[in-house]
Amino acid sequence: MNRTLKIYIAFLVLLLAGIIAIDSNRPKPVDWTTTYAIKDKIPYGMYVFNAEIGSLLKNQKIEQIKVTLYEFLESKYNYDTLVADYKIKGTILNISENSTLDTESLKEICYFVSRGNAAFISSKTIPKVLLDTLKLKIKSEYNPSDTTFNWLANTKWKPEKYKITEGLGNTYFSKTDTLKTTVLGFQSGDSSRVNFIKVKYNNGEFFLHLQPAAFTNFHLLKANHHEYAEKVLSYIPKGTVFWYIKDQNGEVISDSPMRYILSQPALKWAWYIFLTGMFLFIIFNAKRKQRIVPIIKPLTNTTIDFTKTIGNLYYQEGDHDTIIDKKIIYFLEKIRNDYLIDTTQLNDDFIKKIHHKSGKDLVVIKRAVLLITNHRRSPYNSIEEDLIQINNAIEEVVS
Question: pTM higher than 0.85, yes or no?
Answer without folding.
Answer: no
